Amino acid sequence: MSGSSASDEALSSGSLKVEEEKKSAASVSHIVYHFGTSGIAVATATGITHPLDVLKVRLQMQLAGQRGPLTGMGKVFTKMLKTEGPRALYLGLTPALARSVLYGGLRLGLYEPAKHICDWAFGTTNMLVKIASGGFSGAVATAITNPTEVLKVRLQMNSNMGKGGAIREIRRIASEEGIQAFWKGVGPAMGRAAMLTASQLASYDESKRALIRWTPLEEGFHLHLISSSIAGTISTLVTAPIDMIKTRLMLQRESKRVGGYKNGFHCAYQVMLTEGPRALYKGGFAIFARLGPQTTITFIICEKLRELAGLKAI
């Protein structure tokens, strides 16, 4: 009897260990799928819309510190093709994709956990909680990945770097400006990411629920398309000015004739003083043309990948 009892205990212990290992493996795979689907979705959308991002940066750097008539996106696009060639539209693509995987994975991936923590702490997931969760995840993701954004915008403004340009630029920034230069503009970048993620995810989340409640739409492509289009429009209007300030701060080396900006507020003040309030929306159409489709592509792909991975919809 005692031998049988010991055998049963051993079997029970062995089965418990197997169950624990399965749960551990499931939890690890769940985390990988959760953040991986977000990163892949954002990287795909970034690759498709990158030329518009290059145009946006060029438009934002027009007449820095000066007033005057601005060149439209069409003319900037035509001039770039003539003087720099089609490849100029993909300047900075490598750091942009690297940033998208890391930043996108964290930005979208942290939203759900942050929302669940707020629900546990406050017993609600209302609109304010969703905005706060989005703001938190966007700010944290940007603080970690800001160096890739600095490198991206530097490359987008310089078409003469050739092969190995990214590595050379990293070395140049580190040697001439110091490691801290990789965090130039991190304040406005965090502010922009917080506002972008809060407006994007909260409006997408709420739009989905409102459409499911008030229309015949159900989880699927059409619901995701309409909800993401609404989110893209709202996030563009909210983030365009702070996106412009972030770009100026990151490109201060190219704007030395204007004088150094001390911080985001000083940059905004100087821009409005020297270029006029409308200058805060320089590149606004390019931002909308890029962010609208990017938001739509990101959410549609992310939702599909989550479905394939066995995760619930956002």
From TrEMBL:
Keyword Iron: no
Record keywords, A-Z: Membrane, Repeat, Transmembrane, Transmembrane helix, Transport
Membrane topology recorded in Swiss-Prot or TrEMBL: Multi-pass membrane protein
Protein name per UniProt: Mitochondrial substrate carrier family protein ucpB
PROSITE patterns reported in the protein's UniProt record: SOLCAR
Classification of source organism: Eukaryota, Viridiplantae, Streptophyta, Embryophyta, Tracheophyta
Family (UniProt): Belongs to the mitochondrial carrier (TC 2.A.29) family.
Intervals holding Solcar repeats: 29-117, 125-210, 219-308
Signal peptide, first to last residue: none
InterPro entries assigned: MCP_dom_sf (IPR023395), MCP_transmembrane (IPR018108), Mito_Metabolite_Transporter (IPR050391)
A Pfam family assignment: Mito_carr
Keyword Repeat in annotation: yes
Localization per Swiss-Prot or TrEMBL: Membrane
PANTHER family listed in its UniProt record: MITOCHONDRIAL DICARBOXYLATE CARRIER-RELATED
Domain of life where this protein originates: Eukaryota
Any one GO cellular component localisation term in the record: membrane
Gene3D superfamilies xrefs: Mitochondrial carrier domain (1.50.40.10)
Major place of residence: membrane
